[in-house]
Sequence to fold (139 residues):
Amino acid sequence: MNNPDVAKLQPPKKGDIKALEKRWGTKVWAIGFTGVPSLLIRGQRRLGLSPVQLNVLLQLLDHWQKRGNMPLPSKKTIAERMGMTPRYIQQIIKELEGAGFVARKFRKTSVGDWNTNVYDLGGLVGKLQELEPEFTKAK
Fold:
């Protein structure tokens, strides 16, 4: 059921961008934006995501800018953004991994030190694809 085209990011139309820029203001908009499927937000309970787990996924999505380039933020970065400890973020990511939302890929630097993990979000994409027909039917 994994369709590689589902994660493909379509460039927004100029009119859509202008409308969003007007909504948020030019200076806020200039900081950047993240594409988040509404189904992730609307289906939070059905997906079994706690508020903290959803927030961690949103943090990972904010680092997923291009298809094929999986996010690789540090646990420290996510923790600082959320006001939590890196150890707690590590625990939440482990929960998300156990539930099949993310897959961690460990990396080392050229000198052998541990580097930030790469987070494969294919599981999240797959779970949203599975949930979509139910939401489409209810619509």
